[in-house]
């Protein structure tokens, strides 16, 4: 009994330490956003909040069109996430539960694309966007990102184990076609997997910097990450202002993650109760 209590205490202590280590970077970001640049360089570091947050935020708003970039990012991230959820779930369910000629080899090719670094596709992707005349438009951000190999692989693995083949066969006997089996039978079962994929995709698109930096040429269409990068000076950078901008960009993600994580847990709990 004493040994079990010690083990439980050790596990809880480890979890608390892990939680503190995970939360500290966000705490440090918030603290530095309320300080001046000289405070950031001070030693020992100041670990409590200062009184410069309002000034730093106002300078961010003066330096860039923050709300315009925010709306651009929200639009792109939302559209890409919805498209990824639709196309990846459609392909994942097909690979998992429907047989067609060459499906095995096609899935292997799909997995092989995950092995290549994404940076290798930047030049070919830009050439394609330029030939289509999409450079400088949101289409260059949305269309290349509306399907990804990881999402198809994730949904395929989840659907293979969670969707009973007997349920699909019963749907066929009732006269359901392919799309109705996907929409009315498969999607409700895939809600936990879709919650994770949606959060993963939205956060990835929101934080994307390199590809928008390459294809966006009009400042009115800049996403948050590209707009915030313009706060860096050529010879001198006000890091307190930059960190305040980064904090403003992170807050919506934290709210979104908290909402999606609650939905993800509730979906898993509902699935466990039904099973």
Automatic annotation (TrEMBL):
* UniProt-annotated location(s): Cell membrane
Q: Where is the ABC transmembrane type-1 domain?
A: 70-260
* Transmembrane spans: 9-30, 66-93, 105-128, 134-155, 181-206, 239-260
**Family annotation (InterPro entries):** MetI-like, MetI-like_sf
Q: What is its main location?
A: membrane
Q: Which family does it belong to?
A: Belongs to the binding-protein-dependent transport system permease family.
Q: What is this protein called?
A: Carbohydrate ABC transporter permease
- Organism, scientific name: Paenibacillus thailandensis
């Amino acid at each position: 009994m004493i040994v079990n209590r010690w083990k439980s205490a050790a596990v809880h202590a480890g979890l608390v330490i892990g939680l503190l280590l995970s939360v500290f970077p966000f705490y440090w970001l918030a603290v530095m956003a309320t300080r001046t640049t000289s405070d950031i360089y001070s030693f020992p570091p100041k670990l409590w909040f200062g009184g410069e947050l309002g000034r730093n935020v106002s300078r961010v708003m003066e330096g860039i069109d923050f709300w315009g970039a925010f709306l651009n990012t929200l639009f792109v991230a939302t559209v890409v996430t919805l498209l990824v959820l639709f196309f990846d779930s459609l392909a994942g369910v097909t690979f998992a539960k429907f047989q067609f000629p060459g499906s095995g080899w096609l899935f292997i090719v799909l997995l092989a694309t995950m092995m290549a670094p994404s940076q290798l596709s930047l030049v070919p992707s830009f050439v394609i966007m330029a030939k289509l005349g999409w450079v400088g438009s949101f289409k260059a951000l949305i269309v290349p990102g509306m399907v990804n190999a990881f999402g198809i692989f994730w949904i395929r693995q989840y659907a293979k184990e969670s969707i009973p083949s007997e349920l699909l066969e019963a749907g066929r006997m009732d006269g359901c076609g392919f799309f109705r089996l996907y929409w009315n039978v498969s999607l409700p079962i895939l809600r936990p997997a879709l919650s994770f994929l949606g959060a993963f995709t939205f956060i990835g698109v929101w934080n994307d910097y390199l590809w928008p930096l390459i294809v966006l040429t009009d400042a009115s269409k800049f996403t948050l990450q590209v707009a915030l990068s313009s706060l860096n000076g050529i010879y001198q950078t006000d890091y307190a202002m930059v960190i305040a901008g980064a904090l403003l960009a992170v807050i919506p993600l934290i709210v979104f993650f908290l909402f999606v994580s609650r939905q993800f847990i509730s979906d898993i709990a509902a699935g466990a109760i039904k099973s």
